[in-house]
Amino acid sequence: MNLLEVRDLTMHYRTKKGDVSAVDRVSLTLKQGEALGLVGESGCGKSSLAITLLRLLPENAQIRGGHVFYRCKDLLKLPEEEARWYERAGVIKEDHVDLLKLPERHMRKVRWKGISMVFQAAMNSLNPVYRVSEQIVEAMQTHNGVGTPEARKRVAELFELVGLNPNRMDQYPHEYSGGMRQRAVIAMALACDPSLIIADEPTTALDVIVQDRILNKLDEIRHQLNMSVIYISHDIAVIAEVSDKVGIMYAGKLVEMGPTEVIFKRPRHPYTAALMSAFPSIRGEKHELTIVPGEPPNLLQPPSGCRFHPRCPHATAICQEQVPQLQPFGEEHYAACWNPVQR
Amino acid sequence: MAAIAQRHYEAPWRAKLRLFLRGLSINWELFKESRVGLIGLAIIVFYGLLSLSYPILMATIWDHEIYNPVSGYDPVVVQQGGQHPAPPSARHWLGTDQHGRDVFSQLAYSARSEFFLGVMAALITVIIGTLIAAASAYYGGFVDTFFMRVADVAVLFPVIAFLIVLSAMFDLTLYSLAVVLGLIYGFGSITIVLKSQALTIKVKPYIEAAKVSGGSSFHIIFTHIIPNLLPLSFLYMMFNVTNAIFTEAVLSFFGLINIQMSWGMMVELANIGGYLTGEAVTRYWWLFFPAATSITALCAAFYFVGRGMDEIVNPRLRKI
Amino acid sequence: MRVKSQGDLMTTRVAAEQLIRVQNLRKLFPVEKGLFRRSRSFIHAVDDVSFEIQADDTLGLVGESGCGKTTTGKLLVRLLVPTSGRMYLNGRDIATIPALGLKQFHRQVQMIFQDPYESLNPRLTIFDIVAEPLKVQRIGTVMEREVRVAEMLEMVGLAPAESFLFRYPHELSGGQRQRVAIARAMIINPRFIVADEPTSMLDVSIRTGVMKLMKDLQKEFSISYLYITHDLAVARYMCDRIAVMYLGKIVEMGPTEDVIQSPLHPYTQALISAVPIPDPTLKRQPIQLKGDVPSPIDPKPRCRFYDRCPIATEHCNTHDHPPLEDKGGGHYVACYEV
């Protein structure tokens, strides 16, 4: 059974100008120990999807439907009676809990201990007036209630794990370089032994050499702890290197999903194909880059039918009228397209 | 290419006028969201109408002899067995003062000078403040140090005491008061606030782009820095109107300004007549209450409008 | 008015094909020490840098943040004044132009900035933004400028121009804004443009279009670029030659494919090995470097890369930073051990 199962998740932002359909009927699954890469351009809904899973939504966001089943029943330690009541209400199914229906007080236990998140530009999220160790200890104590000496020992372990010198744990964030701060943030995310980490653009502001080290470290830790990771990035090269499978998002929709190699070698959705050939590489033949015409759509009024049809070279009449569903194209490979790329 | 050159485009001045009007209507939509802003605006409109009513009433139904706010006197009240100050009646909507002058007429007459003083002083303040802020932020160095020290002095300046001395030495009219207040406040705290904003504008890449285009300092200050400061300047202008009106009220209460009639003076007259003591306060309320309320209300109104504009100027305060 | 502006350029256009020559360029920033003491420490942002750019060519300046690539760009457009060294445009010294002469200089040299959200004044219309260089250079009347701006907007792919002229930057997407910035830089027919990470903030599908546009306009107007980027893959696509910077020094320079396929300097090798590849079947062997980039404040008189270099010897420690040497085919490297 999968660690995470997202079914038909739909989330809107309510604005004065109308509803922005940021996440539209997205379904995906993730196994224990697997790394999923979510790729898409800014505004495609990849970050919105992440914060919806954790229910860390801004006030104007509204979940319109769907389920997020996550294996964390044991984590909640519910009294038997309450657990049975939730089972009858459909919130709990076997080991899985529907995070969207879980009351906020239980949801708090799931964050950090079940799923933790490394936010975009997280290295600037450390509080400058506290020592790094204090911040991690505090996070641990609010969620686990361990004693300070014990927590400090754990911080030292975590520092070793992410490749930081434990002697520097009592320094302030400004004494760290950007890469070190990012490692500290990852250590903090690992503090409560989550089974899933969501890393939203974890290395975007970093230089290549530092980025490479951090991605390697994260990958190493994932294998070591048999953890699952959802990487969110606009950089398909980063995703290609660290993910087992890849989901491509466009305008709030998951348009293609499959094992990394298949997605990169035989993409079926025209958007995926365009993304791949628009990306320059420093290896291999220098190929002409293709241009995707137009701009991503305004999600206040998303295009009818397939949301990519106004920019799609293969669009036909049906693309304007009907929304394509994800169709299987091979083992665990799905694409939502009426005229998939033949190659 | 030739075909393109023959195409006709909207004249820039016309397009900019169109954009300006559109901008106004968008900002009005945003301003409407703010309740305090609307209340403030309503009060300002009310006093605007009041000051307009003075010349109209004078030209139509009011007799100059009786209703002149300074030299008028109504003998009819005494002939009918009453005495001045007379309470409100159909003849005198807000009663009369101890000299037999109509209080409503005084109130309406003074409204115009209050507006004039407030807006004039605030305009001078904002023009000086914006120019100095833009210049000190852009040039830095000596210019900056000099004006910031001047600002320190102006902030610590005992304005009221200074004006009392000044009024003893010179004949302080409404105009000169507006200029003096405008100057003192203009060199003061407003320059510090606007300068900090100007510093954030100065480091934007579009300033560098303007330099790379060959733009002079004058060009950069006037096309890039000041237009981006103006929303904030305008906001501070509203708060400065409040300041100026308050100061005027205090000074005319002490009778230090050469002015024929003002709200501060109306309160002072009630005070001199002994109507602000003991039981007289409630009995002769119309002598000071309309004037005192007006000072407070108009000051609050400009402040409220400023608060309403704050939400337009600082989008992060805006509700989603 | 176009005749006038091109007349100026005609004289320069016949000149030597070496458009930009930079010799021993250096920019030091004093480190604030105290209120009254004069600073004795300096950040060596650009330290003894020399390069040339041919007419109609693109030189890529590549490196990590803080390596001095943006400072070099700003020196070339004279947003900064060099501490020492020479810069020539068509053989004319541009390092010592006094402030009054800069206006004329800026008819030939322009810059495109990284952040399309910050490089356009939000209070000006697209027309005013693009016409700014014409306006400050006093070229043409308002109506003439408008026609010229409209032409330029259509050239950068913002068509029909009518629908863009009188809009504000916030009404445009990131890609469209960067096209406006390009139009502003091109409108006075410059010979040389410094492009500081012009596509790094754009999405992939938008980025390619902007990069192609810059290449097309380069051919159309015969412009040389100094293309500053941290992204080697983008540099490979855009540039004829690449210079790799590390701590204020150029450590390697040469034709793009030579540098990327067979890097000689150990730093370039490490940098290239760290770039992720959008192909899951290719496995990289990253070269691990020791530590982080050291401080650029008063570096020791030895090879700048000594602390982190995997092949450093005692010679590199006792001698000053090595000079750039031609290793054949215009491929320059600054390393004692290559």
SSE arrangement:
The complex is a heterotrimer of chains A (343), B (320) and C (338).
Chain A: E1 4-15, E2 18-30, E3 35-39, H1 46-53, E4 61-71, H2 73-76, H3 80-89, E5 92-93, E6 96-98, H4 104-113, E7 115-118, H5 132-144, H6 148-162, H7 178-190, E8 196-200, H8 208-225, E9 228-233, H9 236-242, E10 245-250, E11 253-259, H10 260-265, H11 270-277, H12 317-321, E12 327-330, E13 333-335
Parallel strand pairs in A: 3-9, 3-10, 7-8, 8-9
Antiparallel strand pairs in A: 1-2, 1-4, 4-6, 5-6, 10-11, 11-13, 12-13
Helix pairs in contact in A: 5-6, 6-7, 7-8
Chain B: H1 2-5, H2 12-32, H3 35-59, H4 64-67, H5 75-79, H6 103-139, H7 141-156, H8 159-169, H9 174-186, H10 189-202, H11 205-212, H12 217-253, H13 263-272, H14 280-283, H15 289-313
Chain C: H1 2-13, E1 18-30, E2 42-54, E3 58-62, H2 69-76, E4 84-89, E5 92-93, H3 102-105, E6 109-112, H4 126-136, H5 142-155, H6 162-165, H7 174-186, E7 192-196, H8 204-221, E8 224-229, H9 232-238, E9 241-246, E10 249-255, H10 256-261, H11 266-274, H12 314-318, E11 325-326, E12 332-333
Parallel strand pairs in C: 3-8, 3-9, 6-7, 7-8
Antiparallel strand pairs in C: 1-2, 1-4, 4-5, 9-10, 10-12, 11-12
Helix pairs in contact in C: 4-5, 4-7, 5-7, 7-8
Keywords:
heterotrimer; A: 343 residues; alpha/beta; eight-stranded mixed β-sheet; five-stranded antiparallel β-sheet; 12 helices; 13 strands; 24% strand; C: 338 residues; four-stranded antiparallel β-sheet; 21% strand; disordered N terminus
